[in-house]
Amino acid sequence: MNALLLRNPNLKLESTVMELVKDPQGRGSLTPCMMFRKSGGTALGGLFLMVAFWFPLIMFTASVAFGDDIVLGRVVPKSEQVARSEIDHSSWDRLLKTHVDSRGFVAYQSWKSSETELVALDTYINDLSRARIAPTDDKAVQLAFWINAYNAVTVRGILREYPTTSIRNHTAKLWGYNIWKNLKLQVDGRQFSLDDMEHQVLRKLGEPRIHFAVVCASIGCPRLLNEAYRPMQIDEQLTRNAVDFFANPIKFSSDVKRKKLSLSPLLDWYKEDFGKDQTSRLDRLRSFMPIAAQSLAVDPRVTVRYLDYDWGLNDQKATSPGSR
């Protein structure tokens, strides 16, 4: 701010505003923005007085608007780092088989009550920090690593807050802690938030089926697969979870008579990942749909609507088999 004012003394500080920046899911954060107006020439003393007045307020506002980061994992010296293909996901696999059912619902209450199991999760997350990030890594290795990382960090973040009814209770828009932005994983000298993992890493790998694998701890999400993703199995695992997603009536339904498809809003939020237009997107998704809906997906007369998203926590304690 000082540099801007000094470069153009004809700008006069008018006000400070907070701009809410939202993504397609309605998640957002406040960004301090300064508004200036032209002035016929501001006295230097008055300029510095205004700076002295506004700067502490702006800094305070920014500190409130952005919650404190919580960093999981550990700083690992380069000499101790290993290739991502060498990270062992078997402990995460065991935790998932123990605490997640076939519907993808998590036994958060019993998991949190077990110090041993919390330590086991933290140990796995610490192990993720040993990974050395190389852009030349095999795509399957990258996918398995980051999907497992995203899901493990999300589960740990929910366990930290539990009991809770929704991840949205911990996604502050105006100020304070936002789990998607402030909960981070330390890997190879960098800190990756959940948003970073999803939008800056996974989506850029060009595999849209990640949207049927990364789980934001909500009923509207794809199920949390109760096994770790593995490089050698990831293609089959992604397809299996995509098929499960379209078999779930709260995420997909079809009406052949009315030529109507009802889709999860996930497929609206991330539609560009599946194709450039509705025809190409439905064609790409068709193979995951129930047989009865597959012909409808390529019918040029089909209409599409988007279902409501259920942000309720994917908690075994709060749900029953009939709730999905």
Keywords:
12 helices, alpha/beta, three-stranded mixed sheet, disordered N terminus, 324 residues
Report what the structure shows.
- This protein is an alpha/beta fold and 324 residues long.
- Helices cover 39% and strands 16% of the residues.
- The protein has twelve helices and ten strands.
- The protein has helices spanning 2-7, 44-65, 90-99, 108-113, 115-128, 139-161, 179-182, 194-202, 234-246, 266-269, 278-285, 291-297, and strands at residues 11-22, 28-38, 70-72, 82-83, 131-132, 183-187, 190-193, 252-255, 260-263, 303-306.
- A hairpin with a 2-residue loop joins strand 6 (183-187) and strand 7 (190-193).
- The longest helix has 23 residues, at 139-161.
- The chain starts with a helix and ends in an 18-residue tail after the last strand.
Distance between the termini: 51 Å
| Secondary-structure class | alpha/beta
How many alpha or pi helices?
A: 12
* Major pleated sheet: 3 strands, mixed
Strand content is 15-25%
Radius of gyration from CA coordinates: 23 Å
Q: Overall 3D geometry?
A: globular
H/E element sequence: HEEHEEHHHEHHEEHHEEHHHE
Give unreliable regions as ranges.
1-24, 27-44, 55-65
Helical fraction: 25-40%
Averaged pLDDT, please? 85
User: What is the count of β-strands?
Assistant: 10
Q: Can you list the strand order of the major beta sheet? A: 3-6-7
